[in-house]
Amino acid sequence: MTMSLQFFPAPNPNSTGVLIAPGGGYAYVSYEKEGSLPAKWLNERGFDAWVLTYTCADGDIPAPIYPAPMEEALDAVKKIRAEGRVSKLGIWGWSAGGHLAAITATTPEVELDFAVLSYPVISMEDPTTHPGSRQNLLGDKASLELVQDMSAQNRVSKTTPPTFIFHTANDGAVPVQNSLLFATAMARYQRSFELFVLPNGPHGIGMAIDDPELTWTAELDRWLQRFIAA
Fold it and tell me: In order of start, what are the domains of the chain with their CATH numbers?
């Protein structure tokens, strides 16, 4: 699977855009649940959206795939900005796509306006990482330096944009400690963030809009209002 970028235009655009990176453990892209559905949800609120399909270790392309996804995300940001449709741009990543989003957001020269991380893989370090994501991205021979650099909590700085982080406390695939690590790093650098943790819920719940116990998007909706450019 290689890179593609699909545009979802808002019917009444507010001059703010969001690049979406779905999850899938760097093995596939969960396009509908964590891509097109969030894009349409954003469109209803005036946000233009772009869904990134990025290189994955899917059988045709062997692991490790680093640095292809990172380069593709940076390229997508450049392409969106070159179109000139939006004056503010954020990134929204899910699970392994949350790792990709966090790495992109913590790359200072990208200068994103905000980030949303939904049950993200943050660390590539044991015991917190998601082993499948790490294996597909970095393989089993990655240097300690690379593992640390690809652990997004180590990349937070005084330039990291405001970030909304969502997780469930008993996520059995990607431990909530990933989100806690990123939030702690944001606090250390006095960066703006919101950490929203539900007590129960499996990994990969998506937006859970129709589930009264798991729905969390109302809080995200409120948080996003501050980034509307128009």
Answer: 4-227 (3.40.50.1820)
